[in-house]
Design brief:
Blueprint lengths: L1 E2 L2 H12 L4 E5 L21 H9 L4 E5 L4 H8 L1 H10 L4 E5 L4 E4 L14 H14 L6 E4 L4 E4 L6 H18 L3 E5 L2 E5 L5 H11 L4 E6 L5 H12 L4 E7 L12 E4 H20 L1
Parallel strand pairs: 2-3, 2-10, 3-4, 10-11, 11-12
Antiparallel strand pairs: 1-12, 4-5, 6-7, 7-9, 8-9
Helix pairs in contact: 2-4, 2-9, 5-6, 7-8
The structure holds the ligand O=P(O)(O)OC[C@H]1O[C@H](O[C@H]2O[C@H](CO)[C@@H](O)[C@H](O)[C@H]2O)[C@H](O)[C@@H](O)[C@@H]1O.
Ligand L263DTV3 binds next to strand 7 and strand 9.
């Protein structure tokens, strides 16, 4: 783990001391799950389920906060089973799917979800024509129920396709009262109003968090980072960890610590637990 400043190191020490009331929020793709070409073939890092179970025993609560649909991340992450294991220790796992639009917890096991946004069906009807017009007819379109993600990763020139599509999809989304969420070789289109920062605020309130750690890798995590920073301004010990990659650096400037992708994230969590144990003994 590399701290980005002395203040980052101090924040870490305070968070360790506040472990009893610490809530840890984790992004999924690029943080708990290594990035792969095909989104359907993503899988949680082999070591992550065990570490999440261990972590839950060290802190007040843990939550996966993702752009993925909650049901999908439960399957790709084996999170139902993680929830079972947490339950044995009297703990609860929270999942916020689709940028906080969906909620699941290991206690009630039901995904709570709103209706799809009004403009999504008409957006989807127009999408193929716009993709063809932008020479992106072979982009992979991931329909997520409440949102749609247009992936360029498997195209001949992913960066060029992304740059062509971003203004076109932003305009199409605007006409259908939707917003875009750019990410790592992906442009997501979803309803306005909800974002990962709102999920952070909900967790702080419901869990009565006295400290917060958020770990993310991509632009969709910026809202979560900003929400955490607002709580820091109010005096809460917090730590922001960037799961670093060659693809996205937007979080580096906001982060207190940068680690090397999902391997680094799990290394960070192991260190955090060891330091919490040491502080308690
Ligand atoms: O909030 P997250 O958990 O980070 O989810 C964000 C989006 O991640 C997925 O796409 C990303 O991961 C794919 C698999 O590794 C990769 O192929 C793609 O290029 C990445 O952008 C997912 O497909 C989206 O639905 C998520 O919203």
């Amino acid at each position: 783990m590399e701290f980005t400043s002395e203040q980052g190191e101090q924040q870490y020490a305070e968070v360790v001391r506040s472990a009893d009331s610490l809530v840890v929020g984790l992004d999924f793709d690029g943080t708990l799950s290594p990035i792969v070409e095909d989104p359907e073939h993503a899988h949680i890092h082999d070591d992550a389920p065990g570490i999440l179970v261990d972590l839950a025993g060290h802190v007040r609560a843990i939550a996966v906060v993702t752009g993925r649909p909650a049901r999908q991340v439960l399957a790709l992450g084996g999170l139902d089973e993680v929830g079972d294991a947490l339950g044995e220790g009297g703990r609860e796992l929270f999942v916020f799917g689709q940028y906080g639009n969906e909620r699941w917890s290991s206690h009630n096991r039901r995904v709570i979800s709103p209706r799809p946004p009004h403009g999504l069906a008409s957006f989807l009807r127009e999408l193929p024509r716009v993709l063809r017009r932008e020479d992106a007819g072979d982009a992979y379109v991931e329909e997520k129920g409440l949102a749609v993600a247009v992936h360029t990763r498997r195209m001949a020139d992913p960066g060029a396709a992304f740059r062509r599509l971003l203004p076109a999809l932003t305009e199409l989304a605007r006409r259908h009262e939707l917003v875009v969420e750019p990410g790592r070789n992906v442009i997501e289109v979803r309803s306005p109003g909800m974002h990962k920062g709102a999920a952070v605020d909900t967790l702080v309130e419901e869990q009565e968090a006295g400290a917060f750690v958020f770990i993310g890798d991509d632009l969709g995590d910026v809202d979560a980072f900003q929400a955490v920073l607002a709580h820091r301004k109010d005096g809460m010990p917090t730590l922001l960890v960037c799961s670093g990659s060659d693809e996205e650096s937007a979080l580096v400037d906001l982060a207190d610590a940068v680690v090397d992708g999902p391997d680094g994230v799990l290394g960070f969590l192991r260190t955090l637990m060891a330091d919490i144990d040491a502080a308690r003994s």
